[in-house]
Amino acid sequence: MELGQELEDILDSHKKGTLSTEEAVKRLSTIIAREMREILGASANSHPNSSGK
Questions:
Q1: Are the C-beta atoms of residues 27 and 11 closer than 8 Å to each other?
Q2: How far apart are CA 34 and CA 41, in angstroms?
Q3: I want to staple 19 with a disulfide (CB 3.0 to 4.6 A). Which of 10, 13, 15, 45 is the partner?
Q4: Which of 53, 29, 30 lies closest to 40, judged by CA?
Q5: What are the distances in angstroms from CA 5 to CA 1, 22, 46, 47, 53?
Q6: How far apart are CA 37 and CA 35, in angstroms?
Q7: Residue 2 backbone zone (phi > 0: left; psi -120 to 50: alpha; other: beta)
Q8: Tens digits of per-residue pLDDT, 26-46?
């Protein structure tokens, strides 16, 4: 599932009352963490001489 669709699903579920605010925040946090890992992983892979700092 693409990122935009995931976010829409979370927001729609929250608006309908089928997803608590706490659960919505957990899901959003998970998505953000996954996206950051992908970004940082791609960045690290494109700079093999990087010290990682």
A1: no
A2: 10
A3: 13
A4: 53
A5: 7, 20, 28, 31, 33
A6: 5
A7: beta
A8: 999 999 999 999 999 988 777
Say yes or no to pLDDT of 48 above 70: no
Count of all residues that appear for the chain in the document: 53
- Rounded Cα distance, 6 and 8, in Å: 6
| C-alpha distance across the termini of the chain, in Å | 32
In eight-state DSSP terms, residue 32 is H
pLDDT number for residue 7: 96
Give the model's pLDDT for residue 15. Answer: 97
Extract the tokens encoding 18.
């089928």
